[in-house]
Structure formats: structure tokens, C-alpha cells
Amino acid sequence: MTEIDTRLHDRKFVRTFFTTPTAEKGVDDSAKKLRSAIGLRGMQAPDVWVPDNEDATAPNMRDEGAENIAEVVAEDGDDFPGEIHPRVVWHRDSPETRYKGFQHMLEIADPENGAVENIDGFVIPEVGDIDDWKKADEFFTIVENEHGLEEGSLAMSVIIESGSAELAMGKLREEMGKPTNNLERMFLLVDGEVDYTKDMRAITPTGGLPEWKELRHNTSRGASAAGLIAVDGPYDDIRDVEGYHERITANNAMGMLGIWSLTPGQVVEANKSPLPPEEGYWLIDADGREVELDSQDGVEVYSGDRIELEAEDGGYELEVGSDEIFVESEEDLAAELLDLVDYVPSMDDIVDSMEEFEAAKEAGQGAIAMTRAATIDIDGVQVDVSSDRMWDEATYQALMTPVKLFQDVYENRPDQHEDLAELYSEDVVERAMEVGN
Questions:
Q1: Which among 50, 74, 105, 218 could disulfide-bond with 114, CB atoms 3.0 to 4.6 Å apart, if both were Cys?
Q2: How many helices (H) and strands (E) does the chain have?
Q3: Helix, strand, coil proportions of the chain in percent (round to 5)?
Q4: How far is 221 from 200, CA to CA, in rounded Å?
């Protein structure tokens, strides 16, 4: 049986999952949006492009949509920088719908249409229990045999839109690699919170979607256990860039580095957000709200009104919200502020630390202390703070994740090389590609 803790696909990370309608009625060219999407490059181009022949396309246009996918990918797929995974119709409770999706897969993957060389797989929505996943996998195998393709060459991704699909993720690890299926073709586990909310019969006072943090955690865990990649569902408020960024940040903290993107603008945000920032910066916990400090001539300045600091005879008075703290020495004040501040390292910072640890390890040291220091200014009172963090092999490996993400992006997305060099500088890019190797 294959060791499924090892990733089975070339891509180790997917930041962006971008869907596009496959056919629209009442326009001169029903495939216009497909032609526009396949022309995206650089940070506007997703890691995974999903010509969406399900929810994004009207039912009476889906046959034409399948034809459009084959035509557009045959014409321009060679030059598209990401992977191409069309979404076809499927439903755990509808044999008719499953058969229609199968027909569309046959159409799109037919070598005579000229597209299959650039089709990396298909996305299957509305799956149910693990037996339903096996049905879909069997259809993939039939399509491959029908068209003389290597078995397992078409990747299968599923959208988790039901409680039964969520539970099936826990069974995937034991099913993959059995001789009775080709589930090793599995690639992405994608959350579909809208239909999941419907399936769970959930109600919120505003009618909005619940956060479903448990679903996102379970999907991330299921992907990790089965050697797959987890992707969050769509963020519908396309103008709320800050909210989208916050959602990405929260997902990243649980190992879900990919998210659905509905517009090229969201693609840009999702492509950049998981990568380390260009410049490091300090954050302060201002009464429950994280605020970025303003760096001025080497001093990190807080200028809000949630934190107040005043030097008094015999000490300092620090107010955070409604809490008042009096300390007698600058040393005690620095200790209080250390509990409030955090540093977000830049790519350069991370690479520096990696190189320092690698050099120490080469010299025979198993652990070293890394120091981070700053001068914090609140209400004109300046305080020097510093902290030491012990680095050992486990710390090194954990903090390699953003670097490995960068390396994966650089290796798989040459169209983004110029953007990355502009973001970080050529020197940092070269050093980032060397660490860990």
C-alpha cells in the first residue's frame, strides 16, 4: 500500500481555487469568460483554475459548457500557468446527475477534442459517504480506459458539502491504496459552506453563513492524514478585502493554505497572503484588537487610544482598555509590554534565522537562542523590549512551512518569478530557494 502521508501530486500547496462559468446565454461568445480566465498570468492567475460546469453555469447551458471547456483548453491550455480542474455535476442522491457529470467528463477528456493533455483532473461536488467517492473514482477510471489514458492520471478533488462527506474524510486514509479503487488520485478537499449549511439545516439570526470552524479544521486534518490539500470555500463579499484576508490568516493557522477565489482580485489576495511579508512588523494587543505598530526611525510607535502609558514618580502607569497596571521599573514595564507585542517576520527575517540555525547545526549545536528586540513608543514613553526564542530541529522544521510554500510556488509558477523578485528582491529569493536543501 502506498505511504499516503507523502504528497502524491506535483503541487504540495494550493493557494487559490478560482471558478469560472463555462457558458452564458445571450452573448456573442458563450465561452467569453473562459477565454478571459485562461489568459490570466502572474499573481492574477490561480494555482488551480476550475471551469465550473455546475453551480456557476445554468443547467440548460452545461452541455455547451462542456464543449466550451474542451475548445478553450485545447486552444490555450498549453500556456496557462496553473492547473486546470473542471467541475462537473454530481450528487450523492441522484444517479441521473452523476451520469450527466460522467458524460461531461467523457466529452472534456476525449483526446480528439485536444484538451486532455492540459486537463489535470476534475472536481466533484455534492459527494456523500465514502462509497459515493468510490463511485466517482470508478467513473474516472472508466473515462481513462475509454480514452486510452493512464489509470490515475486524472486527479479527483471533492467539495465537502454534507455531513456524510465530512465523516467520509475520516475513512479516506484507510481506503486509499486498496487494489479495489484508484482513490490515490485524490488531490483537493474543498469546503462548500453554503450547501453544507443547507445540509446541516443550520439557522442564524441574520441568515448569514455560520463560520463552520470545525468543518475547516476537519477538512485540514483529513487532508493532512491522507496526503492531500485542503481548500476553504468561497468568500462571497468580494469587496471585503480585509475580511477575506482575515479569513485566509485564520485558515493558515490551522493548515488550510488554500481558499476559493471568485474574482481575479481575490486571486491576487489569496496568492500573496500565505507568503511571508516583504517587511517584518510588530503587532500589539490593544485590548483584544491586534494593531500594527508604526515603524519610525527604528522605533515602533503606537498611536491609538486603547493603550495609554505615563511615566510617574516612582514608576509607570500602563492602561490597556479598562485595566490599569502600575510598575516601578522599566524592566517590569518591558515585561508587561512583551506580553502584548508580537513580531511578524519578513521573508528575509525567516531566511536569516534558517541560515543561522543551519550554520549552528553544521557546527554541532542542536539548539540556539534567537533574539528579537525593539524600542516601543506609547504616548511618547519609549521602552526597549527583547525576547529570546530557543530554536531546535523541531522549531526549524515547523518554521520551514512558509519557506516550502514559497519554494513550491517558485518551482511551479515561473510566471510569478518577476512578481516575487519585485516583492522580496532577487537576493532574498535566491537564498530562500537554497535553505533546507
A1: 74
A2: 15, 18
A3: 45, 20, 35
A4: 20
Mean per-residue pLDDT of the chain = 94
Cα–Cα distance between 256 and 224 in angstroms, integer? 10
Instruction: Reply yes or no on whether 427 is catalytic.
Output: no
CATH code at 16-272: 3.20.20.60
Amino acid, single-letter form, for residue 108: I
Distances from the Cα of 159 to the Cα of 46, 143, 201, angstroms: 18, 20, 18
How is residue 87 annotated by DSSP?
Answer: B
Q: What does the buried/exposed string (b/e) look like for 366-401 if buried means 16 or more CB atoms within 10 Å of the residue's CB?
A: eebeeebebebbbeeeebebebeeebeeebbeeeee
The residue ranges of every structural domain in the chain are 16-272, 281-398
pLDDT digits 0-9 by tens, 50-83: 999 999 999 999 999 999 999 999 999 999 999 9
Question: Per mean pLDDT, which range of 4-18, 212-226, 389-403 is the poorest?
Answer: 4-18
In angstroms, the CA 144 to CA 155 distance is 11
Q: Are 185 and 155 in contact (CB under 8 A)?
A: yes
Position 208 scores a pLDDT of 87
Q: What is the DSSP string of 198-253?
A: HHHT---TTSPPP--HHHHHHHHHHHHHHT-EEEE-----TT-HHHHHHHHHHHHT
**Which residue in the list 93, 240, 294, 392 is annotated as catalytic?**
392
Amino acid 345: pLDDT: 93
**pLDDT over 70 for what percent of the chain?**
98
State the average pLDDT over residues 394-398: 91
**Residue-wise pLDDT tens digits, 338-376:** 999 999 999 999 999 999 999 999 999 989 999 999 999
87 closest CA partner among 42, 131, 133, 56: 56
Residue 139 carries which side chain, given as an amino acid letter? Answer: F
Is the pLDDT assigned to residue 277 strictly greater than 90?
yes
**12-34 burial, b if ≥16 CB within 10 A, otherwise e?**
ebbbbbbbbbbbbeeeeebbebb
